[in-house]
Every structure is written in structure tokens, then in C-alpha cells.
Amino acid sequence: MAKRCISLFLVSFFFFFASCLGVSEWANQKQGNTWCVAIVSAPPDKLQGFIDSTCSQLDCSPIRPGGACFEPNTLRNHASYALDLFYKAKGICNSEIGTPAVSDPSFGNCHYP
């Protein structure tokens, strides 16, 4: 009886562990299918501060002059790119100025991370 209980426990543990790995993989895939973009009502100073902070840590060359995402040269578009760059790198969408989106904001030659 004890061997049967141990076997049942081990099988249950295996399935639990396997399902946790599946959920983790699903979560990573889900983030790959979502983006973080600037909300319309975000204050300009907060957007600029986020761009400055993010671009001091990560590569924001696509939103610099000559970059594929520089045009349209608007604070909101540049902030959206920086928000998504940070989201993909750190897994956090800043809810104060950003919101998750299920539609890819990429356009033309500008490809969001």
C-alpha cells in the first residue's frame, strides 16, 4: 500500500510540475503577443521621463533621428516604443502611462520589439 501511495504521489508531482512549466511557457508566449503602448491621457512630462530613463538603460536607436521608428516624431509614439521595449526586457508595462495592447503597433519599417 505504501509503495502505491508513493507512486501516486510521484506521478501527481510530475503532472503538477509539467503543468507549471506549461503555464510559464504560455505566459512567455502571451507576452510575445502583447505590447505596451502609451495611454492618450498620459502627461507629457511623465512620457518624456520614461523615455529618458528607459533609453539610458536600453537601446532606443529606432526612435532617434534617422531610426526606423523616429517618424512620426511625436512624444506619444516615442514613448510607446520605449514602453514596449521596457515591457519586453523587464516584463512590466508601466500602468501609470502605458497599457497592454493586443494589436501590434508596428508600421512600415518600424517594428516594435
From TrEMBL:
Pfam families in the cross-refs: X8
InterPro entries given in the database record: X8 (IPR012946), X8_dom_prot (IPR044788)
Its ancestry begins with: Eukaryota, Viridiplantae, Streptophyta, Embryophyta, Tracheophyta
> From which domain of life does this come?
Eukaryota
User: Which positions carry the signal peptide feature in this UniProt record?
Assistant: 1-22
Organism of derivation:
Nicotiana attenuata
Q: What is this protein called?
A: Glucan endo-1,3-beta-d-glucosidase
Write down the SMART domains for this protein, in alphabetical order. Answer: X8
For this UniProt record, give its keywords in alphabetical order, as a comma-separated list. Answer: Signal
| UniProt xrefs under PANTHER family | BETA-1,3 GLUCANASE (PTHR31044), CARBOHYDRATE-BINDING X8 DOMAIN PROTEIN (PTHR31044:SF147)
Every copy of the X8 domain together lies at 34-112
Q: Name one GO cellular component term.
A: plasmodesma
